[in-house]
Amino acid sequence: MSLVLDPAAQDLLFREARTANTFTDEPVTDEQVQAIYDLVKFGPTAFNQSPLRVVLVRSAEGRERLVQHMAEGNRPKTASAPLVAILAADNEFHEELPALLPHFPQAKDVFFSERPVRESAAGLNAALQAAYFIIGVRAAGLAAGPMTGYDAAGIQKEFLDDDHTPLMVVNIGKPGEDAWFPRSPRLSYDEVVKTV
User: Fold this and answer.
1) How many angstroms from the chain centroid is the CA of residue 191?
2) What are the tens digits of pLDDT across the range 133-168?
3) In which residue ranges of the chain is pLDDT below 70?
4) Within 13 Å of residue 13, how many CA atoms lie on the same side as its CB?
């Protein structure tokens, strides 16, 4: 095996990890979420943009507001997960670039003065960070249930603003009874990787 990461960690993060569809009622603490973020913030983004923003939905009132915007099949699991995170892209991420990219603070104006350019960059780089976030949830010994089946405009209006674009909703917690669907097939190395 040419991987350095311990096989148990490989299983935890990838091989045995699955999208959870049910959860126990064991709470997910603020300390766990902080630890997840403090790990995954080191994942790379272009120009160190770091455009991911997270809204944690904990309250019953917040949950009710969110569930009404979820696709029908996603409502029960979102209603019952101990914690739900709305992951969004900050289209005004460039305002943080002078601090995040101190060796090239002018990148804010040189590359990202136009809103369409920022939206494209924010979408791509926040999606990268969303993937890191899911891996971080797994690293914390929790299960993630990422979903894109929702009314994006409704979630944006209810929880965000015009400068933030929702990317996905992630249910988080300890997996419950019958949490897993059967694993779907994956493409083989030869189907994905080409050498030129």
Assistant:
1) 27
2) 999 999 999 999 999 999 999 999 999 999 999 999
3) 1
4) 13
Give the predicted TM-score (pTM) of the model: 0.95
Q: Which residue has the tokens 């095996």?
A: 1
Residue located via tokens 């350019």: 117
Q: Tell me how far the alpha carbon of residue 28 is from its chain's centroid.
A: 16
Count how many Cα atoms sit within 13 Å of the Cα of residue 32 in the half-sphere of its side chain: 17
DSSP SS3 for 53: strand
Token pair listed for 185: 């097939």
- The whole-angstrom separation of Cα 147 and Cα 112 is 29
Q: What is the CA radius of gyration of the chain?
A: 18
Alpha-carbon gap, residue 151 to 137, rounded angstroms: 24
pLDDT of amino acid 1? 62
**C-alpha distance across the termini of the chain, in Å:** 25
